[in-house]
Design a protein that fits this description.
Helix content is 25%, strand content 22%. The strands form 7 sheets. Strands 2-3-1-10-13 form a 5-stranded mixed β-sheet. A 4-stranded antiparallel β-sheet has the order 16-15-17-18, with no helix packed on it. With 479 residues, it is of the alpha+beta class. The chain has 12 helices and 22 strands. The termini are far apart.
Length: 479
């Protein structure tokens, strides 16, 4: 029996057209950080950094402190590429990755003494003594600060102290192992570590990793782990990874290294060379990831534009030989040989020092020539569009799948793809709910498919200008 009514009333009805919320795709770095300067408990936790203030809170700031890959990434993100957010997973654990050290006869100058190690853990484990009588100096008689290099500066509030001895524990990056990067999941508590934490990023931040890097380790095992964990996150979200090539690899060896170590995958980018600015060197994977993110940021986060031939802010590349850094100056021909084998690099050109390469690592002679797999732009757009469509249809799961709802989902996707096409971010795109792809057996089991056709914009990688002599122009002499 219908309800008796009298007077006016109103009710809300679900809209057939819905807005599309683009997926946020930050760079994710699994590495080491100076948590001794920030949050010492920040171990094996995804940390969202959206500003220099966040970097200071968790890791002590955005200074490029040598030996700590997360600090390097935050310096580049803040001071070179001006791009956020960055999600950092610090695997450097002060419980396991520390070393006890004694420093003697440290001279006090103008009331200050600078200790030699980075990563010094302050607090109860730090003991300062007067070198003259070896008496412990009470903590209330000195102050502790960190300088730009991450070194501890002890300010002594006693003019009689001329030299000090210091006993302390410091964060020892050399003790971090491959297994720390790859991580694990506790079978009882389900607590995750290392790369296994990637699956926690979306539930925690509602963000999907755009690119995952682990610059501290340039090994084949880490390359495989990066691909396994970043390619499909939590059996759903798609991402990219950039494994490191050893920084001792020479130009003539890099193609052979790629093939022998099977760095061949459509979900990975390979970059050759150690980038540098003046006398500071950086990790190639970090530079490449942040270049891509900075280019995306100029395009509303849509990764349709190639990072290639964009000024990378570096001065060039090089490699290490017996711990000595040697600079390289590749010609375009030499760089193109790397590109031909699915390896990007950094190249000095007339328009500046640029990132150079459009292809994923699957591209090489005799390799995969599938457009969606061999182009960086195509693969990233497929992942971006796929992630965004899934994200915006999460709420449609388990609703009654009526003909109008099937059409509404199709229409919403088409409206979004048309908008991107009109903005010059796609050549075109459409979604179709096709009967041949939705057999009765699937529909009975609650399985519905929409076919998405995409026209991804191809980079103008080769521009050829044909010059021809035209004798007809001689007739202008008689006009």
């Amino acid at each position: 029996m219908s309800q008796f009514t009298h007077g006016t009333r109103v009710r809300e009805q679900e809209s057939k057209i819905k807005g599309i919320l683009a997926a946020k795709t930050p760079t994710v770095i699994v590495g080491t950080a100076t948590i001794n300067q920030g949050d010492i408990s920040c171990v094996n936790k995804p940390v969202l950094i959206q500003s220099a203030k966040d970097a200071a809170t968790y890791f002590g700031g955005t200074n490029n402190i040598k030996g700590f890959s997360i600090n390097e990434a935050l310096y580049l993100a803040n001071s070179v590429y001006n791009t956020y957010p960055i999600i950092c997973i610090n695997i450097l654990d002060p419980e396991n990755h520390k070393t006890a050290y004694e420093e003697t006869d440290v001279v006090v100058v103008d009331g200050k003494a600078k200790l030699g190690k980075t990563g010094i853990i302050t607090g109860e484990t730090l003991i300062i003594k007067n070198t003259d009588n070896l008496e412990i100096i009470p903590s209330e008689k000195y102050d502790i600060n960190f300088d730009a290099e991450g070194k501890v500066v002890v300010k002594i509030n006693d003019d009689s102290v001329k030299k000090i001895n210091a006993n302390y524990d410091f964060l020892d990056v050399s003790k971090v192992q491959e297994t720390d990067v790859m991580g694990s999941i506790n079978p009882k508590t389900l607590e995750a570590k290392g790369l296994e934490l990637i699956k926690e990023i979306f539930p925690k931040f509602s963000m999907i990793p755009g690119c995952v890097i682990a610059p501290d380790f340039a090994t084949a095992k880490i390359a495989l782990a990066l691909d396994a964990k970043a390619n499909v996150i939590d059996n759903k979200w798609g991402s990219f990874s950039i494994p490191e090539i050893p920084n001792t690899t020479k130009y003539g060896d890099v193609i052979d290294f790629k093939k022998k170590n099977n760095y061949i995958d459509e979900d990975q980018i390979i970059v050759f060379g150690v980038p540098y600015i003046a006398d500071e060197t950086f990790h190639a994977s970090t530079v490449a990831a942040l270049i891509m993110q900075s280019v995306d940021a100029k395009n509303d986060g849509v990764p349709f534009e190639s990072p290639s031939n964009k000024n990378c802010k570096m001065h060039g590349i090089g490699y290490f030989e017996n711990e000595v850094f040697k600079k390289l100056n590749l010609s375009e021909t030499e760089a193109n040989l790397l590109n031909e084998n699915g390896i990007s690099t950094i190249l000095s050109r007339s328009n500046g020092t640029v990132f150079w390469g459009n292809r994923t690592s699957v591209f090489q002679p005799g390799g995969n020539m599938e457009p969606k797999d061999m182009w960086i732009t195509h693969k990233r757009m497929f992942k971006y569009i796929g992630n965004t469509i899934m994200l915006n249809n999460e709420n449609e799961v388990d609703k009654p799948m009526t003909p109008s709802r099937c059409k509404s989902i199709e229409t919403n996707i088409n409206t979004w793809l048309t908008a991107m096409t009109n903005e010059g971010k796609l050549l075109g795109g459409r979604a179709e709910f096709l009967p041949e792809e939705n057999p009765q057996n699937d529909l009975v089991m609650g399985k519905f498919k929409w076919h998405i056709y995409l026209g991804i914009i191809t980079p103008g990688e080769t521009l050829e200008f044909i010059l021809e002599y035209d004798g007809e122009y001689l007739n202008t002499l008689f006009k």
